[in-house]
Amino acid sequence: MRLVIRKTDDPILRQPTEEVAAFDMELQKLIDDMIETMRTDNGIGLAAPQIGVSKKIFICEFAGDKEAEIPEVPLTVMVNPKITHYSKEQRRMVEGCLSFPGLEILVKRPSKITIEGYDRYGKKIKIDADGLYSRVMQHENDHLNSTLLIDHIKEVNAVFIGTGSLGVPTLEAMATDPQYKIKLVVTSDFTATSRKVKLNLVEEIAKKYKLPILKTKNINAPDVIAKIKKANPEVVVMADFGQIIKSDLLNLPKYGVVNIHPSLLPRHRGASPIQQTILDGDKMTGVTLIVAGEKMDAGPIISQVSFKLTGSETSTILKDYAANAGASLLLNSLPYYLAGDLKPFDQKEAKATYTRLFKYEDGLVDSETDAATVERKIRAFDDWPKVHTKIKNLDVQILAAHFDPEHNLIIDRVKPAGKTEMTYADFQRGYHSELTFKA
Ligand code: NI
Fold first, then answer.
1. In angstroms, what is the span from residue 235 Cα to ligand 1's centroid?
2. Domain CATH for 132
3. For the chain, which has fewer Cβ within 10 Å, the N-terminal or C-terminal residue?
4. Is the model's pLDDT at 193 over the cut of 80?
5. DSSP state of 166
């Protein structure tokens, strides 16, 4: 029978456990139910308190993973166990727990143990274990001593810096992860092109989680640096901020300023990686985590994730995708970086390419612009500056277009100055005009 797994703050998880006195039928039934529950819930270990029984029993089993080179853990039942030897050598590994769904924490433990106890029929057993086997049994033995995964959390003081939407999923993920204590959120209401942001989503998230907010147009101002210093961050996480960070701040946190950059660095360093990815017709892109240095986007790489592009992405869509990919990348690799298990490596300088801030003029096209460029610009500049063309001194924004199977550019939607958005067909009828571009 599948049993209900007790979760998070259920007091039974903290209750002292009793030794098993009788290896009777009742015990056999309980162990069978535990095995069924562990397998059904895809766990690799289960301790009796987790199903509401305060007794010294745990089980574990793992089929093995050839790809990740993790050997199998045989089905093991441990009754009244005692760990009699721990290796001096320790290892860090990410652990989860059926009682804390979704929580993954990097835990340092001795790599090898000797454990003694009884099997389900009361026969004395002694196991020397290393790797995952040792890890799981230490975790389950913790449960029998009322120690939980959350007790292994070493909270890291962090400061988040960002303005645009790219960092929003990261901020939210860090705010809800017990491994991080966000002491301060630094943001600005202005983008790198000095445009006021319509809605500061970073600020919205900071308010939602009641995080202290500091707004500044100059992150390097001494009073701002002083406030960040007072927050005492071990790490600063930065995404989509639009201001250059100087050495005073770069050198302040022990683990530096970790920057989330939406490209496969060293490709597309600089202010507009997402737009440039689309303008260049890249087939692949990604997100890179770097330790920020004095030279923009040139710092050593902590980790990187790549993904394929379909060729129909707009900047808004790509940014949204990269924002979520960046949050998972940070959550999955920051603990290893902070633990010293992930050593940042230098970028290949010779392969670096650079992007610049775009201006209104970058969105201007005319009949001499080739159709492929127009189509890419419409997607790249969908948020700003948008694609503009002039017809008899009338500014017309081209909002959407696509190529037909014969590779002719078909314009779908436009917005003449002072009017609302309309279909291109309506525009042609109303304005007796056509927009043509080079093949
Ligand atoms: Ni557990």
1. 29
2. 3.90.45.10
3. N
4. no
5. G
Of 351, 378, 408, the domain-final residue = 351
Domain with residue 364: its CATH number is 3.10.25.10
pLDDT (tens digit per residue) in 132-177:
999 999 999 999 999 999 999 989 999 999 999 999 999 999 999 9
pLDDT confidence tier of residue 47, bands split at 50, 70 and 90: very high
Whole-angstrom distance, CA of residue 329 vs CA of residue 326: 5
Domain region containing 129 = 11-152
CA 65–ligand 1 middle distance (angstroms):
20
In a domain, 3, yes or no: no
The reply to whether 90 and 171 lie within a common domain is: no
Q: How far is the CA of 309 from the centre of ligand 1 (A)?
A: 39
In a domain, 193, yes or no: yes
Amino acid identity for residue 416 in this structure: P
- Known catalytic residues are 140
| Residues at Cβ < 5 Å from ligand 1 ion | 97
If asked whether residues 160 and 307 sit together in one domain, one would say yes
Greatest alpha-carbon pair distance for the chain in Å reads 95
Annotation: binding site for Fe cation: 97, 139, 143
* Number of domains the chain is built from: 3
What is the pTM (predicted TM-score) of this model? 0.83
Ligand 1 center from residue 43 Cα (angstroms): 9
Give the end of a domain, one of 92, 123, 152: 152
| Residue 93 bridge partners (DSSP) | 107
Q: What is the mean pLDDT of the chain?
A: 95
pLDDT tens per residue across span 215-255: 999 999 999 999 999 999 999 999 999 899 999 999 999 99
What residues are designated binding site?
A: 97, 139, 143
* Number of alpha carbons in the 13 Å side-chain half-sphere of residue 136: 27
